[in-house]
Design brief:
- The chain is mainly α.
- Helices cover about 75% and strands about 0% of the residues.
- The chain has a single domain, classed as Farnesyl Diphosphate Synthase (Orthogonal Bundle), CATH 1.10.600.10.
- The protein is built from 16 helices and two strands.
- Helix 7 (about 120-150) runs antiparallel to helix 8 (about 155-180) and helix 8 crosses helix 9.
- The chain starts with a helix and ends with a helix.
Length: about 325
């Protein structure tokens, strides 16, 4: 099923031209969408639907709308983060320019609404309200993320809420969307949203860990990017909380530095992480959110066979190294 749905998604994505002229506005959208990736969010929409109905072919357009929204956020996030690479390729603002990336992202969001508007009117209002709430939270989370870079202290609770908004709520919405379109009960729609949100927090925490410790050839992004940018990740927050006087002084010095060799900073901060067993603590936190998510999945009122497909797919993602 997963392979078949993956082919469905890629076929539908290739059909979406988003617009024609000016070509410089729409080509960046097609470029970013064609870069691939895990297609996690649209796959979750199809799997959420398949928990209750046998064939998700009828809703693949709406699943692709979720992927388009996700890529819209990436296009703008990459500008804000000054990221040079996305999925191992130049980011849109690097390949074209910042102004084009802003405008392409803007029209991309408009096209997402176009893709959603032709769904069954019985679901449209509910879906748009849920989508708008999700989209607003994604923007709020991104703003918190940027503000945290300027703050000296961020609590673990603040950080978890930020990644919940910035990353996890879209996974929750993706699953909820599929369930809504399949006519699932309100209770099951809520449980799937909870499942996706908790799994999403776990995934983001794992992404934070991979950012510092992944194999560069597999990761597709700059290793240590979060450390270089002084991002208040779970790893840094826990390090500042647990560090002794000397370690805290060194971390503070690197956070304040304006001129440095990137590799030297990354190595120095990772050495402190290692001394404090931060990777192990992060893995423990990751697993706690995965456990919460699977507890919600267990409570769904659907066939065990359908539930097993979603469970196994999620478990495969948990074991990823990129």
């Amino acid at each position: 099923m997963i392979d078949r749905y993956a082919r469905l998604l890629e076929k539908e994505i290739s059909k979406q031209k988003f617009g024609k002229q000016p070509a410089s506005l729409y080509e960046p959208i097609r470029y970013l969408m064609a870069l691939g990736g895990k297609r996690l969010r649209p796959m979750l929409t199809l799997l959420g639907y398949s928990l209750y109905k046998p064939d998700a072919h009828a809703i693949v357009r709406y699943a692709v709308a979720v992927e388009a929204f996700h890529n819209f956020t990436l296009m703008h996030d990459d500008i804000m983060d000054k990221a040079p690479l996305r999925r191992g390729k130049p980011t849109v603002h690097e390949k074209w320019n910042v102004n084009t990336a802003i405008l392409s992202g803007d029209v991309m969001l408009v096209k997402v609404y176009d893709m959603l508007l032709d769904m069954d009117p019985a679901y449209l209002s509910r879906v748009l309200r849920a989508f708008n709430k999700c989209a607003s939270e994604v923007c709020e989370g991104q703003q918190w993320d940027m503000e945290f870079e300027m703050r000296r202290q961020v609590t673990e609770k603040e950080y978890i809420n930020m990644i919940r908004q910035k990353t996890a709520v879209l996974l929750g919405f993706s699953l909820e969307l599929g369930a809504v379109l399949a006519g699932a009960s309100s209770k099951d729609c809520e449980l799937l949203r909870e499942f996706g949100t908790n799994i999403g927090i776990g995934f983001q925490l794992k992404d934070d860990l991979l950012d510092a410790y992944a194999d560069a050839k597999k990761f597709g992004k700059q290793i240590g990017g979060d450390i270089i940018a002084n991002k208040k990740t779970f790893l840094l927050i826990k390090s500042l909380q647990l560090a002794n006087k000397r370690q805290k002084s060194e971390l503070t010095r690197w956070l304040a530095a304006t001129k440095f060799r990137k590799s030297e900073k990354v190595d120095a901060v990772k050495n402190i992480y290692d001394a404090l067993s931060i990777p192990r603590l992060t893995e423990r936190k990751i697993n706690s959110y995965f456990s919460k998510g699977f507890a919600s999945l267990d409570r769904l009122d659907c066939s065990p066979e359908a539930k097993a497909v979603l469970y196994n797919y999620t478990q495969q993602l948990i074991g990823r190294e990129s």
